[in-house]
Amino acid sequence: MKALYCVLVASVVMILAGCGSVQKPGARAGVEALSLAPWRIEAEADADPDDHRPAELHRPVLLMHSTPPRYELTRSPEHPNATGKLDVPLGRRWKHIVIHHSFTESGNEEIFDNYHRNHNGWLGVGYHFVIGNGYGSDDGAIEVTFRWEKQLQGAHAGVREYNEHGIGICLVGNFEHGHPTQKQMASLVALVNYLQERCHIPTSHVLLHRHIKNTACPGKNFPFYRFISLMPH
Ligand SMILES: [Zn+2]
Fold first, then answer.
1. What pTM value is reported for the model?
2. Which of 82, 140, 142, 170 could serve as 100's disulfide partner, Cβ 3.0–4.6 Å?
């Protein structure tokens, strides 16, 4: 009887020890920032970065953009000017481009990366690209995130297909109230033209977040028809 008891206790200890080595979603200790642990990708698959709304990023400063700029946009055959590795070898089947706004008045890749990492428990910033508005990074600056550099799936759409095969581009700003800047739109056109050519993505697959999910993102003031008229095909 005592022997049986010892076996039972030993079994329980072994099971507990085994469970202890399993990382649960949200657990962070000992996990490399770029770890590709399956549960982490799983946890991000339905992620929606529109939840990042740190109060410190909401400043009234951008109310100056409450009237739309006179957008002078042309189709851009030029290589987009980006901070980071844009020309990396393609490592995924990219089928869509999904455009977001940050819903914050200011921000940049690093700020969103910190927020998505620390508040959402993700690998890092959910988008592949962030385009600045002059408050947090230069107006029109394209920041290439680790998700594009390492060809990882995004955590931006809230829909699995579009996270796994959609390139997420975030424009800093709140376009429910304000408007994207001229330079942001020019950079977006150049970047999307580049990505369409590079990844063979048709214009019908260049989408706003609200086209695929019940959200206002990227805001009612995003000039979608003006923008889409500048896509190559
Ligand atoms: Zn969005």
1. 0.78
2. 170
